[in-house]
Amino acid sequence: MIKGVVCLEWQKPSDSAVKGIQTPLTRLHQMEELMAKKEAEMELLRKQLLKAHHTNHELVKQLDTCAEHNIKSILRENASLKSYVSRLSRENAVLRGLQSRQLNTRLKSFERAVSKFSRQEQQRTFTEDEHAQALKIVICANNQRGRMDGRGDGYSQDLSTNS
After folding, report:
1. Can you give the pTM of this predicted structure?
2. Burial class of residue 28 in the structure, from the number of CB atoms within 10 Å of its CB (0-12 exposed, 13-18 middle, 19+ buried)
3. Are 90 and 34 contained in the same domain?
4. Is 157's pLDDT higher than 60?
5. Range among 11-20, 41-50, 67-76, 120-129 rated most confident
6. Do 88 and 42 share a structural domain?
7. Is residue 163 very low, low, confident or very high in pLDDT (cuts 50, 70, 90)?
8. Does residue 57 lie within any of the structural domains?
9. Does residue 35 sit within a domain?
10. Is residue 60 part of a domain?
11. Among 39, 45, 108, 148, which is 20 to 30 Å from 21 by CA?
12. How many domains does the chain have?
């Protein structure tokens, strides 16, 4: 041995001691294996993410198609309902016109009947009792008017003895 120089001799450890001790080369191999596993996991996750992105894109397209279809369907139904409302409005106007004409016809018929009845009443001849009763009513009305005016014409005779 050389003086002042320490020479170390490497001795191979026993098998039980080897398990706890790692050489840099062993550690490097373990890290490479771990990196390969992590890269495989990352590749799997990347593929899953790509597949999820593609599925999401397809769902968005389906949703757009469905929404467009629903909007078109709603617009068609709206146009149909507007047409239906318009038709009902026209029918309602026609029915109101018919009702008005029917009421006018009935009213004119009633007016003719009243007019005919009135003419018949005017042309009818009164019996003596009816004539006396009407005269009595007129005289009583004149007397009432005279008393209210303060004249007292003297027409207050009892007509029941005259007939």
Report:
1. 0.38
2. exposed
3. yes
4. no
5. 41-50
6. yes
7. very low
8. yes
9. yes
10. yes
11. 39
12. 2
